[in-house]
Structure formats: C-alpha cells, structure tokens
Amino acid sequence: MTSSDSPPTVVLLPGTASDEVFVRSAFARPLADAGFALVAPASRSIAGHLAALDAAWDGKPLVVGGVSLGAHVAAGWAVRHPERCAGVLAALPAWLGPAAGAPAASAASVSATSVDGQGLDAALDAALAGVDGWLGDELRRAWPRYGARLASVLRESATSTAPTSGELRGLNVPVGVAACTDDQVHPLEVAREWVAALPRAALRTTTLAALGADREALGRAALDAYLSVA
Question: Entry's InterPro entries (predicted)?
C-alpha cells in the first residue's frame, strides 16, 4: 500500500474512567493488520477528547470512534465536523441523546458518589461487587490513574449527552458498531438503535466473556462492521 492510497488515521477514545491502554489492547492489532494507524489519546475528559480529535485532524479526513463514552464523543464530533470525518468505529454505545436513565450513566453517577464519600478503594469494591475476572482487573488498573479527578470524570459522563437519532441520521459516513450481547451496562438494543438511525452502518457482536480471553474481539467486531459498509 502506498502513502497516496493509505487509509485514514483512526483516532479512538476511551470509555468513562477507562484509558488508552484498554483502547490499544482492543484495537491496535486488528487495525494494524488491516493497514490502519491507530492514535489512542491519553485524554481524561470530554473536553480533552474533543481537543485530541481536533489536534489529530491535519486536513485529511479521519476515522474516529471509541468505546462507550468515547464513541459518543467521537460520533458527536463527526456530526459537527462532517468534512473532517471519513468514518466511525463505535464500540459499546451506551445511550442516545440525554443520559438520563441509561444503565451506564446510573452506574457512573453512583460510583462518583461512592468515590466522594468512601474513597477510591471502597468505591472500587462497591462498583465491582459481583464482577469477576478481567473487567474487575481492568477497572482496578484504570481508575487509580485518574487520581483526584475520578469522581468528576464519572459525574461528567453520567450527565453527558450522546448524539440523538436525528443527528445520527445526518452522519453519512461508514460506521461500524460493536456490542456485547451479555453486557447489561451497554445494552445491545442501544447499539441496534444507533445502526437503525445511521445511513451507512453495520453491527457486529461479541461477548464480555470473549473479551476476557481476547480483548481484540471488540476491536475486530467494530472493524469488521466498518469494513462491511465502507
């Protein structure tokens, strides 16, 4: 592949209180195998995510996206800057429009209150009650990286707004959506609603259990969905 026909850079944002380490673990190899260059910003807020997207754009349209909140922010950026966007990878979208009532938003709000009232260790124990394996390990790794900002980051996510169905209907670029069929926090039905609203989109599914054995299952699902409509 020559530089003149190389695919766009892919800029992917992390989910709430997650980080670029998880993004790379899920997406770096699948994207590299397909010839894409991954940029995984170490941003820690919605404003930081948007600034990272703006900084990555050098006049050539980007493929943007992310996980959960990161997917929301990237899709919203694409809606506002269609000339800068060549496509979207949206993994585990959690809601459409206002966050009110969404399981992921409710969980983030409860965790923010817990962090403020009990501290990080106790809040992690509460958030991970009944959560075993890799997901618990991932949160225990990522949350401490936020330090004193963790509660505010969780609260910001819980009150944020994702693109609406109407906004997504105006996003005429290829979009790959990935969901886990056993994820109650990021319901499969929400992913289906995103795909139904988008003019050029496909959905691929995996499971949280599969991610336990291979984080790249999430990246492969989103990329396969994207390539099927690109």
Answer: AB_hydrolase_fold
Indicate if 181 and 152 belong to the same structural domain.
no
List the helix and strand counts (H, then E) for the chain.
11, 6
Give the structural domain span for 175: 3-98+161-229
Task: Provide mean pLDDT across the span 79-88.
Answer: 97
66: nearest Cα among 46, 84, 83:
46
What pLDDT, on a 0 to 100 scale, did the predictor assign at position 127? 85
Q: DSSP secondary-structure letter at 11?
A: E
Gap between the Cα atoms of 213 and 191, Å rounded: 23
- Work out the average pLDDT over 118-136: 86
Q: Which amino acid is at 133?
A: G
What tens digit of pLDDT does each residue of 25-49 get? Answer: 999 999 999 999 999 999 999 999 9
Backbone angles phi, psi at 179, to 5 degrees: -140, 155
In degrees and rounded to multiples of 5, residue 80 shows phi and psi of -80, -25
Report the side by side order of strands in the sheet with 38-39.
38-39, 10-13, 62-67, 85-91, 175-180, 201-206
Which CATH number covers residue 59? 3.40.50.1820
Say whether both 10 and 112 belong to one domain: no
| Same-domain check for residues 220 and 146 | no
